[in-house]
Amino acid sequence: MFVKVRSSVFIDALQFQLTAMKGFHPLRGVLKDERGCVCRTLEKKFTRDKEELIWAGLNDLPYGRYTLELSHGDDEMKMNLVKRV
């Protein structure tokens, strides 16, 4: 696991603890709603092995369930999230 999400419930931002970010591959993220429509995308390069990232600007998304797909080079992971009040 190359990323840990601080909480699977969010209001206006997601906080990540990045670990094992080696190489020159960027972190790519796709946030999808319940229907599978892409709501937001993220691409960020890192130069250190450990770093924290805050994905802000999610306050205008509707409340509900989301799927977060993250990739870093050949590593991929998916997680379910919930946006609440």
Features:
globular; 85 residues; mainly beta; 8 strands; Immunoglobulin-like
Give the helix/strand layout.
Elements: E1 3-5, E2 9-10, E3 14-18, E4 27-32, E5 38-44, E6 51-55, E7 64-72, E8 75-83
Parallel strand pairs: 2-8
Antiparallel strand pairs: 1-3, 3-6, 4-5, 4-7, 7-8
Describe the protein's architecture and organization.
The chain is an all-beta fold and 85 residues long. It has one domain: Macroglobulin (MG2) domain (Immunoglobulin-like). The protein is built from no helices and eight strands. The strands form two sheets. It has a five-stranded mixed sheet with strand order 2-8-7-4-5, with no helix packed on it. The chain is globular.
For the record, the CATH architecture stands as Sandwich
What sort of overall outline do the alpha carbons produce when their principal axes are compared? globular
Strand-residue proportion: over 45%
How would you characterize the largest beta sheet? 5 strands, mixed
Low-confidence stretches: none
Return the structural class. Answer: mainly beta
* Rg measurement, Å: 12 Å
Q: Superfamily at the CATH H level?
A: Macroglobulin (MG2) domain
Number of helices, where a helix is a run of at least 4 consecutive DSSP H or I residues: 0
Domain tally: 1
- End-to-end separation: 29 Å
SSE arrangement, N to C: EEEEEEEE
* CATH class membership: Mainly Beta
Number of strands: 8
How much helix, percentage-wise, in residues?
under 10%
* Average pLDDT over all residues: 88
Sheet with most strands: strand arrangement:
2-8-7-4-5
User: What name does CATH use for the topology?
Assistant: Immunoglobulin-like
